[in-house]
Amino acid sequence: MAEMITVEDRNQDTLSRKAGRYLYVDTQLWLEDGQVHRGDGPAVLSPDGAQIWYVRGKEVTREVTAFFFQHKWPLQRGLNTPEKIIEFDARFLK
């Protein structure tokens, strides 16, 4: 199960390195087994509203955006139904 961590001054450098990008203080980051990962939504939520999707340490934001577009699902609703989660799992988590 992924653990949500809030970026603070004391852990900002370490978490930014894990994500492979600069993370602002107050960014929410999900980690599982030491990798940036979240199976039910974006793994990085920045204070300015940016959402970045990661699966097992790999950024997949573009792929997820295309996936939502292909299925005609509004991205802002995320994985809000069991059917969406099943399809997401089959595509990204198998």
Walk me through what this model shows.
The protein is of the alpha+beta class. It has one domain. The protein contains 3 helices and 7 strands. It has helices at residues 12-19, 61-70, 82-93, and strands at residues 3-6, 28-32, 35-36, 44-45, 51-52, 54-55, 58-59. Strands 1, 2, 3, 4 and 5 form a 5-stranded antiparallel beta sheet that branches. Strands 6-7 form a two-stranded antiparallel ribbon. Strand 2 and strand 3 form a beta hairpin. The protein is globular. The mean pLDDT is 95. It comes from Immundisolibacter cernigliae. This is Aldehyde dehydrogenase.
Helix content: 25-40%
- Look at the structure and give the mean pLDDT: 95
Overall SS class = alpha+beta
Number of domains: 1
Q: List SSEs in N-to-C order.
A: EHEEEEEEHH
Low-pLDDT segments, ≥5 res: none
Number of strands: 7
Largest sheet: 5 strands, antiparallel
Taking all Cα atoms into account, the compactness measure Rg is 13 Å
Strand content: 15-25%
Shape: globular
Cα separation of the termini: 16 Å
Q: How many separate helices? A: 3
Question: Could you name the key traits of this structure?
Answer:
7 strands; 5-stranded antiparallel beta sheet; Aldehyde dehydrogenase; alpha+beta; 3 helices; 94 residues; globular
How are the SSEs ordered, and which strands pair?
Blueprint: E1 3-6, H1 12-19, E2 28-32, E3 35-36, E4 44-45, E5 51-52, E6 54-55, E7 58-59, H2 61-70, H3 82-93
Antiparallel strand pairs: 1-2, 2-3, 2-4, 4-5, 6-7
Protein name: Aldehyde dehydrogenase
In brief:
It comes from Immundisolibacter cernigliae. The protein is an alpha+beta fold and 94 residues long.
